[in-house]
Amino acid sequence: MKNEINLNFLKKYGMSEEQIDTFFLYANKTRLLAKKHRKDFKNDIVKMELMIAFAEYRKMNKLSDK
After folding, report:
1. How far is Cα 33 from Cα 62, in angstroms, rounded to an integer?
2. Looking at the chain, which terminus has fewer C-beta neighbours within 10 angstroms, N or C?
3. What are phi and psi of 16, to 5 degrees?
4. All residues at 6 or more sequence positions from 47 whose CB lies less than 8 Å from its CB, including other chains
5. What local confidence, expressed as pLDDT, does residue 65 receive?
6. Where are the beta strands (DSSP E) in 1-66?
7. pLDDT for res 49
């Protein structure tokens, strides 16, 4: 997924590679990404799902706002 989708919206908050991986685990668990998009991976839809998950993730985890 990292190679397919522009992750600048995550890096903007100073997230390290490890933090991004942790976020991906959270996003997959809460948005069922692997299950829903395994056969039909569309970048724009998956990015939207990631952004929705990130909005919730930010509420629970302190991130810098660069």
Report:
1. 23
2. C
3. -80, 170
4. 5, 6
5. 66
6. none
7. 95
User: For residue 30, what pLDDT is reported?
Assistant: 96
pLDDT tens, per residue, the chain with 66 residues: 788 898 999 989 999 999 999 999 999 999 999 999 888 888 999 999 999 999 999 999 988 765
CA distance 24 to 49: 11
Q: Which positions ≥6 away from 24 have C-beta within 8 Å?
A: 1
Among 61, 31, 37, 26, which residue's Cα sits nearest to residue 49?
A: 31
Spacing of C-alpha 41 from chain mean position: 14
Global pTM value: 0.85
Q: Which two tokens stand for residue 66?
A: 């660069």
34, 4 Cβ separation under 8 angstroms: no
Which sign does the torsion angle of CA 27, 12, 62, 16 carry?
positive
